[in-house]
Amino acid sequence: MTDTARTSPVTLHDVAREAGVSLATASRSLNGSTRNVKAANRERVLEAAERLGYSANASAQAVARGTTTTVALLVGDIADPYFSSIAAGVVGAAEDHHLVVTMAETRRDTAREVEMVRALRGQRPRAIILAASRRLGDPHAAALAEELAKYEAGGGRVVFISTVDAPFRMLHVDNAGGAQALGSELAAMGYREVAILAGPGDGAEVMPLRTSEDRLTGFREGLASHGVDVPASRVISTAFTRDGGYEGMQQLIGTFGSDLGGIDLVFAVNDVMAVGAMSAARDAGLVPGRDVAVAGFDDIPTLRDVTPRLTTASLPLERVGEEALALALAEEPGSPALLEAEVAIRESTPGR
Amino acid sequence: MTDTARTSPVTLHDVAREAGVSLATASRSLNGSTRNVKAANRERVLEAAERLGYSANASAQAVARGTTTTVALLVGDIADPYFSSIAAGVVGAAEDHHLVVTMAETRRDTAREVEMVRALRGQRPRAIILAASRRLGDPHAAALAEELAKYEAGGGRVVFISTVDAPFRMLHVDNAGGAQALGSELAAMGYREVAILAGPGDGAEVMPLRTSEDRLTGFREGLASHGVDVPASRVISTAFTRDGGYEGMQQLIGTFGSDLGGIDLVFAVNDVMAVGAMSAARDAGLVPGRDVAVAGFDDIPTLRDVTPRLTTASLPLERVGEEALALALAEEPGSPALLEAEVAIRESTPGR
DNA sequence: GATGTTGCGGAAAGCGCTCTCCACCCTAGG
DNA sequence: CCTAGGGTGGAGAGCGCTTTCCGCAACATC
Lengths: 352, 352
Known about the structure:
The structure is a homodimer.
Chain A: H1 12-19, H2 23-31, H3 39-52, H4 58-65, E1 70-75, H5 81-96, E2 100-105, H6 110-121, E3 127-130, H7 141-153, E4 157-161, E5 169-173, H8 175-188, E6 194-198, H9 210-224, E7 235-237, H10 242-256, E8 265-268, H11 271-283, E9 293-295, E10 312-314, H12 317-329, E11 337-339, E12 342-344
Parallel strand pairs in A: 1-2, 1-3, 3-4, 4-5, 5-11, 6-7, 6-8, 8-9
Antiparallel strand pairs in A: 10-12
Helix pairs in contact in A: 1-2, 1-3, 2-3, 5-12, 6-7, 8-9, 10-11
Chain A binds a DNA duplex through α2 and α4.
């Protein structure tokens, strides 16, 4: 019976002995190799395994087979709904393929990202999926690329989500296109005096996030197609977080006064920033949606219930995760996939 | 130089050969064992490793050392901010210990949970942390306990977050106490006619979630201490999700009419449900906070900006994750830790 | 009966590491 | 001069598996 006093896991050897067969037969019975095992023997092995509570040592299998069942996912911040939604997609899809996913966090620090990749590389994952946002002209980009190249040289696969073109498998999210459509639609609704809360980076000292940049540029183009221009003085650089949005709006109010100097629409480059911005407006006595329209980007499900309901560009984040895994597993990378954003006009931009 | 054509990872053997030393010396140089290596040799090894882009094979190390650097985390739903906050805490703390965390999702299905544990067990993680919510009288509980017992018999550690007492390391979250304090305070503020949106399970067909049950009971006790009673007809069983909250409120409105028959406070057993409930109220023409007060539980950061700001019991979720890991790593389990919730009264319950 | 075929079990050689043990060199002490 | 002992390198066993290869038996074919 089960040896309750043991303190190290049951091995295949134990099972084989218990079943009275060889290691080879036990192995073949438990993982359905190409080779057949006589039913009687397989039966005995399965029983013995069950009785002993055997569970194959994945590390040993990995060493013997030369391949693991692991996929690594690197995100900026797990608690951020943007990343956790993507993670949910990856984990869900991974499970369908009987893969285990290991996660790490860059904490939005691009130097750490290189370290994390180095650490993850040791796991010999089938693929490394990078969902952490990249910066333009990042000084660590070269180091990252080098580390990833080494990983690929060892047979690994690298998938990048939403970023600059890189010599790896790419999953593009249509930030620019979505933002453009959003900008165009809002301009058509009559908004003329627009301010933008962009992500961090002024282009000089700190480099901007690629995602933020794409959304900023796209949005401006969308507005421009209706003859609306956003002067540089109305583009605020701030953190890519809720607090960043809050502070950005505060800054706007500080600069232009509590009537915002006629600004009728504030576009934040992501939903959590937009929500922070609404709070700041409210705290300054403005009613979002009435005194100033606000729009975001992403369409985070958890934020679906904020009031007024947020106009945004809807991104299928779980699907992004699923597609990323599919891309990682595909034999041939194919052309870079593009996931589109869909404009969702809601009460936070009632129109003028 | 780096062999760019290779397709299988660089091994320690390669490094040793490149450096002109033995496998043993290479191993000792690269991981700082107890044994000394002459500086010159270590230097050569480090250089060779760098040049070849070597990264130690974690699986092989695990097999050789008989121990991994992995911790497994099992959550109900990664995209749910409750779980992702805990996950962030675990991942953050794990990193400080140079551990990698692998995540799996039960999708709130308790049968799947057993399977997931079985799969994770193969990884031989140092610990398995279970954050997935458990049900009272779960028919799969026995199977789960058995699977976990097997894992522990193999030297693994199991940590349970927020649940029934079980013969494993426990991290208790003070759901009952927090709910009681919240109930008491709200009763003191004058609320008398209360309805509760509880989690799923009617106690007969479907078993209730332990978390939900604790919060329900605690809240009732808190009210009772001020002489306020909640009749069973005002306790709605619904899904533990945003949609569950929405439907629960709809049901309340359907039953008691659009004035809610005098109900002045609705307590939802978690924040996402509360937010869903507010939306349902709004969609029915009620103004949350004015026509009906709403309270939640958890204090999810992402939901900090909903309006009216949500009264809730604040749980330090990231800390829960950190403590869970600490508990997993501790030599001696010690007495079950208890993490307290703090009442946060905000505008969604202005008082009467 | 000799000669293939299959079908299946087991021995053993790896997989990429760690770590024990032994060998060797050098210095110090007698 | 010899011996003891500390420091260091390397051979090789072993971790828990997979998988190749060999051998044996049972059966079909001529």
